[in-house]
Amino acid sequence: MLQALVSLQMLLGSFLFLNMANSNLASARSSKQDEFYTQFYDIENEINAYLEYNPDVFKDKVVLLPCDDPEWSNFTRFFAQNFQSLGLKKLISTSYAPKSKLMDIHYTPSLFEQENPQFELSKSETHGKLFVLDKDVTGDGIINIEDLQWSYLDGNGDFDSEEVTKLRDEADFIITNPPFSLFRKFFAWIMESGKKFLLICNKNCASYKEVFPYIRDNKIWCGKTPMGVDLLFSMPPELEDDFIQNEKEGSKYRIVNGKVMGRSASVWFTNIEHGRRHQPLDLMTKANNLRFSKHKDVRGLQDYLHYDNFDAIEVPWVDAIPSDYEGVMGVPISFLDKYCPEQFQIIGITQSWDNLATKIYPEQIQVAKNGKRSRVTKLNDGAAIKVDTPPTDDVYYIVGDDIFTKAYVRILIQKVNEN
Ligand SMILES: C[S@@+](CC[C@H](N)C(=O)[O-])C[C@H]1O[C@@H](n2cnc3c(N)ncnc32)[C@H](O)[C@@H]1O
Question: 331: CA distance to ligand 1 center in Å?
């Protein structure tokens, strides 16, 4: 008995250790991504979409770039360089104290900083900085990055501090790539401001219960850059070494022109209007999809599969959405960057927190691809598809005499009727 207890304890211990190791790895990953810096080209490409839609979108406006750092960041560079052509009233950028960062990054003050009489090395390590551009300081007749002035913040530059929140409240637009590890907190900070914003986020954020309801209700949407585009980020030199030693090339980073660039499945989220989101998808009818779709899991079917626990059909590909189906359809998350609110309405998501499931399954037996069986309840957190025979190349679930597969997270949509 004692021996059984000891080995149970050891099993639990190693389970906990593994879980801790996994979650430490996940948090180490996201703290590394906290130091991913956005490329100039990606910022320019995205901002151009808002300017195409409304050339005066930033005219006489105050833009705040929090969680930034002009030493590294292209956001400040882009907006400072284009200050006049955008017609900006004021550009504010705040940086975070090097000593407060989750990663231990070697801090080297720039010449720009050191040449300033107010510069103090220890203060630069422990304080955030405030950069402001609102007038021609150099007297050369143009307002650009040369006119950027800086001072120390009272605190470390935490976006959630009183002083940065005050700057948020002064701004018309808040634009940044925030620290990934603090995304939920940052997003709440943005949404409570009621300001216009443009943020780079991890694609998974779209399905968070803190984010998705805003997407469903058309309060926020994807930017212009498609979700499938591989956004690459630069990083501090010590992180480059870390990535080469510990991460997988091609998956977590790529080497571009000899430089290590971090990869992260990213998407821009915004509440600023742009034209792409009003372009409807060009789609085939249901009958034509079933006959001619390029996807072999659609072509040749008698009909689209219907979920067992949601009143909706499964549409595994965005380009296989039937143009003439009147009911609810479950579509991949990648639909969001093609979503045109005049064409479809978003009803919900197949996550249990959205409470749209029509039934709850009792405990299930999950059969992994390698045949391993375990008792789970996860079929309830997704759309279940009843199958006649167990798939050979997919995980499946047994509930009583029934067999199910589970679709990836699906957005539930329905056609907008013109009249
Ligand atoms: C993903 S990086 C992006 C930097 C820059 N916005 C860019 O896109 O190039 C996020 C930055 O936020 C900083 N940061 C981390 N925690 C922060 C906090 N609580 N408040 C403000 N900035 C923070 C990180 O150190 C990092 O410099």
Answer: 33
E strands, 162-246, are 173-176, 196-202, 221-222, 232-234
Expressed in angstroms and rounded, the spacing between residue 72 Cα and the centre of ligand 1 is: 10
Name beta bridge partners: 402.
399
Task: List pocket residues of ligand 1, CB cut-off 6 Å.
Answer: 34-38, 67-69, 72-73, 75, 96, 101, 157-159, 176-179, 182
CA-CA-CA-CA torsion sign (122, 127, 129, 130) = negative
Strands (E), 97-246: 129-133, 149-152, 173-176, 196-202, 221-222, 232-234
- Mapped onto helix, strand or coil, the DSSP state of residue 191 is helix
> Among 123, 268, 124, 156, which residue's Cα sits nearest to residue 164?
156
So what's the pLDDT on residue 8?
38
Pocket residue to mutate for ligand 1, from 29, 31, 34, 77, most atoms within 8 A of Cβ: 34
Beta bridge partners of 152: 129
Residue type, 14: S
Residue 257, judged by CB atoms within 10 A of its CB (0-12, 13-18, 19+), counts as: exposed
Q: How far apart (Å, rounded) are the C-alpha atoms in residues 209 and 66?
A: 24
pLDDT of residue 30: 60
Give the closest residue to 39 by CA, choosing from 272, 263, 275.
263
Q: Whose CA is nearest to atom 5 of ligand 1?
A: 68
The whole-number mean pLDDT for each consecutive block of 10 residues of the chain, a chain of 419 residues, reads 42 42 53 90 98 98 92 90 98 96 83 88 95 97 95 97 98 97 97 98 95 98 93 92 92 94 95 96 98 95 97 98 98 97 98 97 96 96 97 96 97 90
Amino acid 14: pLDDT? 43
The pLDDT, as a whole number, for residue 70 is: 67
How many other CB atoms are there within 10 angstroms of residue 45's CB atom?
15
Q: Which residue has the tokens 């009272």?
A: 154
- The pLDDT of residue 293 is 97
Distance between CA 8 and CA 12 in Å, rounded?
A: 6
Report d(CA 127, CA 120) in Å as an integer: 10
Ligand 1: which atom is nearest the Cα of residue 159? 20
**What separation in Å is there between the alpha carbon of 35 and the centre of ligand 1?**
7
The C-alpha atoms of residue 252 and residue 37 are separated, in whole angstroms, by 15
Residue 24's pLDDT is 52
Token pair for 412: 């539930």
Name 405's bridge partners.
Answer: 385
- Following CA atoms 59, 65, 70, 74 in sequence, which dihedral angle do they give, to the nearest 10 degrees? -70
